[in-house]
């Protein structure tokens, strides 16, 4: 059976063969034995999972490009992990919930509209191309939502907070778009942003 491929229009992108690794706040050293993932905020049933819990869950797998807001893309990446939508539904978001905030071990955060987090193709990625995430790629876990630019796929995820009202995350405070929809080229709010130095910590082949 062929693996599902999710095709996303990505105007203005160029395909490259080497990943460019950014670390806005440094790379944390995380042991999976001590890592936890919380589902918090405006939910009726807050949850906390260990890495072992997450790794035992049914796996969603598909192929989709990774699209960076800085206009490069990696084609045909295989993403594997449990359903983010499934985890959120277990926590039972309240009816007024409109956003989720991804919070990470390094202090990074980024918001996404809850309707994207509830899509069937939203995953908590544990593996890329049949290998566990590398540390610089967000080990042990990162969300992946194929419709949105890569800065929304927050590395070293530790918490998914469900919210009623929008709040800026790390890059959004500098003018990055609230939603970040690839097909609509939603890179920066009002097409303006404050230039912030990005730390490139490495490159490697997909």
Radius of gyration: 16 Å
Query: In percent, how helical is the residue content?
Result: under 10%
Q: Please summarize the sheet with the most strands.
A: 6 strands, mixed
Structural class comes to: mainly beta
Give the N-to-C terminal Cα separation.
23 Å
CATH homologous superfamily - what is it? Oxidoreductase, molybdopterin-binding domain
- The CATH first-level class comes to Alpha Beta
In CATH, the architecture is Alpha-Beta Complex
Order of helices and strands: EEEEEHEEHEEHEEEEEE
What does this structure look like?
The protein is mainly beta. The chain has a single domain, classed as Oxidoreductase, molybdopterin-binding domain (Sulfite Oxidase, Chain A, domain 2), CATH 3.90.420.10. It has helices at residues 51-56, 84-91, 114-117; strands at residues 5-6, 14-15, 18-22, 36-41, 47-50, 60-67, 72-81, 99-104, 109-113, 123-125, 127-128, 131-132, 142-144, 157-163, 200-205. It is globular and about 40 Å long.
Q: Which helices and strands appear, and what pairs or packs with what?
A:
Elements: E1 5-6, E2 14-15, E3 18-22, E4 36-41, E5 47-50, H1 51-56, E6 60-67, E7 72-81, H2 84-91, E8 99-104, E9 109-113, H3 114-117, E10 123-125, E11 127-128, E12 131-132, E13 142-144, E14 157-163, E15 200-205
Parallel strand pairs: 1-6, 2-7, 4-14
Antiparallel strand pairs: 3-15, 4-5, 6-7, 7-11, 8-9, 8-14, 10-13, 11-12
